[in-house]
């Protein structure tokens, strides 16, 4: 999500540079033995996605985009903020029956909890084959110690601690019990319950922030387990890969239940914030290094086998149109998957859709939003990148390349992702027209053994000329006003996945050229 701390332009521009030198060779040799030993390759990057806050899930556009992403990925769960926001209507100690025609002596208390919208929110996810990843946030205004302590997002969530933890505990118990009563413990036990969001930033008003967050976590975890021990609870849901070791040590020392550790990182987070160093970590290395750091912290903790979930990640925490809207995301995502494989249970991409209002109502479809689909359900290149990488198999073949990933499927097919990473061409939130040449093309000489020497190959691509709705938007002059229906149709068609090319190996060899910011996927039958 957007960080609310001030952004230093110098730090941001430094983060745009890649660890891959721009003068790198433009050719690469890739050798793939289909009979080589493989390792398990669970699709950890596509099982959970973030989204706009809870109430937005009731919109048709949200559910349309959810189905689109579900159709092309292994989407199993969605995480969002704000299930306890007043707009969802769960908590109101002053509630009465909604019948103003009754005399005062006939008005009966309606109960302080109202699950009407919560039921519609979770029913809508489950009806589409998607489970909630339950982030327990934010504070109901009438429960807050300071109802005026809000965060700066458009919808102004209250981030205060509760005025009385007995009220919070009772709400958590009622919430969990209602979910079990409605959906059954066998279903609810498969959900993750994450306590709060980024308490080390301004999403938590307790001071000092982490010790008071631990108090919130303790109350919440104990209340959930009081309802049923099978409920899966975790935290600390921190920004910048922070405090996981400290959190686990706290749980151990105070005998507090914890079933998973969660945290967040973005590729333009700074080394100072994540590692407390002065180094300059490029955008194509930050996520991996943060994941590795937390993985190693857990291994050295009292819970060395604790599941690790990165419940938010992306290439940028700020609205950078040259990053999250563009073909840059294909190589960045593929490289991130290559690096992080085996280090985490899952990584939740923030977000699946630009049905999203943290900075206000969306004014233009391409503003650097986090989603895979822009407003009006226009596919971005990132959606096509996820769709392509979904085709990777479930066994990984070891390669010595930093720009390739090879897998096998149970049907014997071999899949190879190839990419040409280059830094984003702009700086910060201002859009920069793409240059004529983002960098040199890269030609891959791919050699296969263990497959028929003249096997057919399907080639899927996402690059400037394939599956790129932004190119069509640029051709329209980047209109700032509402799009016409014809413009929307044009952009949706431009953003659709390009048909696969049909090629054939020549004596086990294939040559393929990938432009800068391009991703290609080979499927050898």
TrEMBL record:
Domain (Glycosyl hydrolases family 39 N-terminal catalytic) ranges: 29-494
InterPro entries the record matches: GH (IPR017853), GH39_as (IPR049165), GH39_cat (IPR049166), Glyco_hydro_39 (IPR000514), Glycosyl_Hydrolase_39 (IPR051923)
Listed GO MF terms: hydrolase activity, hydrolyzing O-glycosyl compounds
Gene Ontology biological process terms, A to Z: carbohydrate metabolic process
Active-site residues per Swiss-Prot or TrEMBL entry: 198 (proton donor)
A Pfam family this chain is assigned to: Glyco_hydro_39
Signal peptide region: 1-24
Keyword entries, A-Z: Glycosidase, Hydrolase, Signal
Family the UniProt entry places it in: Belongs to the glycosyl hydrolase 39 family.
PANTHER family in the record: ALPHA-L-IDURONIDASE, BETA-XYLOSIDASE-LIKE PROTEIN-RELATED
Record protein name field: Glycosyl hydrolase family 39
